[in-house]
């Protein structure tokens, strides 16, 4: 009982003190200057503010194939995703074909993902894990081509670009249904 009252008193006092600090120094803690983060330049926002749509809208210029993608994968990706994108600590990217409707579905790029453009977008935004955003567009197209190649979706020398990538038909492209409400 005593501890409960003591905790209540401490919490109340802490709240009063914080409220007084905020009220007294609204420049530092207020809406105009919350002292959080830093102001981003318009150039930086343009560099990272992009959307790649399933139809390819938003894909940048560049190109690559699985041959160059393999070399890059072995340097940038193999530690997490394993040799030939299987058996790594962060999940397989290849294989799993035909398992989605089975008792043990294996969700990989080749078995689950509905659009090839999503692969480019994901790599561009989030990979390599330790240093996302450091790959060039050509490197991203090459990695995309290599992962698609490992999933038997493209040939080894087929060039991936903003023109060719949206034309790729993924094995599970018909496995997704757009759900929407008429009131939205």
Features of this protein?
mainly alpha, elongated, 184 residues, Cytochrome Bc1 Complex, Chain D, domain 2, 7 helices, two-stranded antiparallel ribbon, 2% strand
Protein described:
With 184 residues, this protein is an all-alpha fold. It folds into two domains: 1-36; 50-167, Orthogonal Bundle (Cytochrome Bc1 Complex, Chain D, domain 2). Helices cover 40% and strands 2% of the residues. It has helices at 2-24, 26-29, 42-48, 66-76, 78-81, 116-126, 137-150; strands at residues 63-64, 160-161. A two-stranded antiparallel ribbon has the order 1-2. Helix 4 packs across helix 7 (137-150). The longest helix is centred in the N-terminal third of the chain and has 23 residues, at 2-24. It starts with a helix and ends in a 23-residue tail after the last strand.
- The dominant shape is elongated
Mean pLDDT: 86
CATH architecture of the largest domain: Orthogonal Bundle
Overall structural class, as computed from helix and strand content, comes to mainly alpha
Helical fraction equals: 40-55%
Name of the CATH superfamily of the largest domain: Cytochrome c-like domain
**CATH-defined fold name of the largest domain:** Cytochrome Bc1 Complex, Chain D, domain 2
Unreliable runs: none
Write the element-wise H/E pattern from the N-terminal end onward.
HHHEHHHHE
Binned strand content: under 5%
Strand order of the largest sheet: 1-2
End-to-end distance: 52 Å
As for the number of domains, it is: 2
User: So how many helices?
Assistant: 7
Largest sheet: 2 strands, antiparallel
CATH domain class name of the largest domain: Mainly Alpha
């Amino acid at each position: 009982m005593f501890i409960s009252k003591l905790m209540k008193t401490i919490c109340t006092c802490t709240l009063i003190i914080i409220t007084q600090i905020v009220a007294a120094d609204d420049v530092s803690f207020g809406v105009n200057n919350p002292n959080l983060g830093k102001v981003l330049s318009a150039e930086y926002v343009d560099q990272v503010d992009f959307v790649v749509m399933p139809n390819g809208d938003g894909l940048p210029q560049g190109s690559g194939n699985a041959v160059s993608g393999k070399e890059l994968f072995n340097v940038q990706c193999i530690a997490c995703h394993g040799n030939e994108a299987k058996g790594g600590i962060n999940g397989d990217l290849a294989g799993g074909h035909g398992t989605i409707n089975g008792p043990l579905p294996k969700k990989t790029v080749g078995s689950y993902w509905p659009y090839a453009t999503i692969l480019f977008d994901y790599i561009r935004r989030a990979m390599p894990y330790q240093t996302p955003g450091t790959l060039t567009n050509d490197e991203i197209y090459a990695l995309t081509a290599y992962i698609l190649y490992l999933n038997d979706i493209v040939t080894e020398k087929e060039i991936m670009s903003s023109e060719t990538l949206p034309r790729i038909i993924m094995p599970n492209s018909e496995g997704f249904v757009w759900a929407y409400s008429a009131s939205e």
